Amino acid sequence: MLQTHLDNRHYNTSDSTVMKLFPYLIAFLFFLLNPSYSFGQNSASSIIVQTKHGPQLNYAIAANCSYSYQQSIELPNSKDNQLLSFVGDLKTEFRSIQTQIDSSSYELFRAADVSIFPLEKLDSIIGNDSLILINEAHDRLVQRAFLYQLLPLLKEKGFTHIAMETFAAPSGELSISTGFYTAEPLMGEVYRRALALGFDFIRYEDTLHNSLLRDSLQAVNLKNNLYDDGKWRKTLVICGYGHLYETSDSRENKMMGEYISELTGVDPLTIDQVLFGEYDPNSYSHSIYEALHQDVPILVSQIEFWPFADFCLVHPPTQFINNRPDCILLNDKKHFFEFSNFPRNTRLAQVYLADEIKSKRDFQTRIPTDQTTYFKNGIFMLALDPAETYLLVYRNKKNRILRIKKIKPTSSK
């Protein structure tokens, strides 16, 4: 469950006039420095390849990208960040992001009139709301780990539907046809958990129109599927970056969250995970992250200079164990297991749920629960749930399977 140990705190300032100058300038800088905020697939989409047998997953493309950066002193290209996240290589991704502290922003936030809550307050914050919009940066795994932890609470509160950006055919078992983002192992785990909890899935993304039309059409899609008799079905909408924003300075900048309110008169609960993140290239956002500097997740509200969402969720810094990020352990549901004695020329180690693999072709269309290119002292380390049975797969740089082994992590490594 969601747990933190932090007392409520409150910062005050009388300098509200200064604060009001910030919102749209900061939003502009944020989008300028995050060009993928609304079309965030970038080079990562290359992992899906078309073959005579239909679309297949080639995770070796991400593995080769990760491996090449590991062998080089070259700073990674930020356009590869999402590709790196598919093999859990946050260590390399963070190396690509040059951060700096903006002391004026730091001090301004320290003096700001904001409220900070422990994450355990989220239950009461949700209250009786029926529509929640939560965003994510598509390469930040900790934000997907939070979604995984959130699902049981939403189920307890009567939520029935999940709408996610890039859903393609979200029904039944997880596969390449489910959607693009769910092909990333941790988001795949989010989908599996939602499926097991009995949520229904809704497609809503518009990919056919330009950015001026996209958000309005996505709001219409959500309304047509989930709004009946003057009320929303209890729904979690997972979107990217700024799509949840509830206010704007012009029609051209209006986002999906604002259109939803206009179409239905319902003010959704919006939670922004993206604004205050570690290793953010925006010096303003990074400075605020450093000002908060928490070792547990916190919710920040009443941010006078950021009126675009109800709350900002701030995650603690990622911890690495042999270059593997701790967030993929899903609050200790999983544990790291070490694997050695792998074939020569192995580039990628993966684990699939054994009961999801019915034929050899499934290794090209199903989603592993974890995968990595990192090995140290002749050992790969993968995150496994001791309650599950897996198929351990080693691939070479051409995505060819070198070995398959059935494992039960409590008894075999």
Secondary structure elements and pairings:
Elements: E1 9-11, H1 16-19, H2 23-33, E2 48-51, E3 54-57, H3 60-70, H4 81-85, H5 90-95, H6 103-110, E4 114-118, H7 122-126, E5 131-136, H8 141-156, E6 161-164, H9 185-197, E7 200-202, H10 211-226, E8 227-228, E9 231-232, E10 235-240, H11 256-264, E11 269-272, H12 283-292, E12 298-301, E13 311-314, E14 320-321, E15 324-325, E16 335-339, E17 348-353, H13 362-365, E18 370-372, E19 375-376, E20 379-384, E21 390-395, E22 401-407
Parallel strand pairs: 5-10, 5-11, 6-7, 6-10, 11-13
Antiparallel strand pairs: 1-4, 2-3, 4-12, 8-9, 12-13, 14-15, 16-20, 17-18, 17-21, 19-20, 21-22
Helix pairs in contact: 6-12, 8-9, 10-11
Oligomer: single chain
CATH topology of the largest domain: Rossmann fold
- Report the principal-axis shape: globular
What is the count of distinct domains?
A: 2
Tally of helical segments: 13
Overall mean pLDDT stands at 86
The spatial strand order of the largest sheet comes to 1-4-12-13-11-5-10-6-7
Q: CATH first level of the largest domain: which class?
A: Alpha Beta
Q: Could you give a short account of the major beta sheet?
A: 9 strands, mixed
Cα(first) to Cα(last) distance is 29 Å
| Percent strand | 15-25%
Give the class from helix and strand content and strand pairing: alpha+beta
Which CATH architecture of the largest domain? 3-Layer(aba) Sandwich
Poorly predicted regions are 1-42
Number of strands: 22
Computed CA radius of gyration, to the nearest angstrom: 21 Å
Helix content: 25-40%
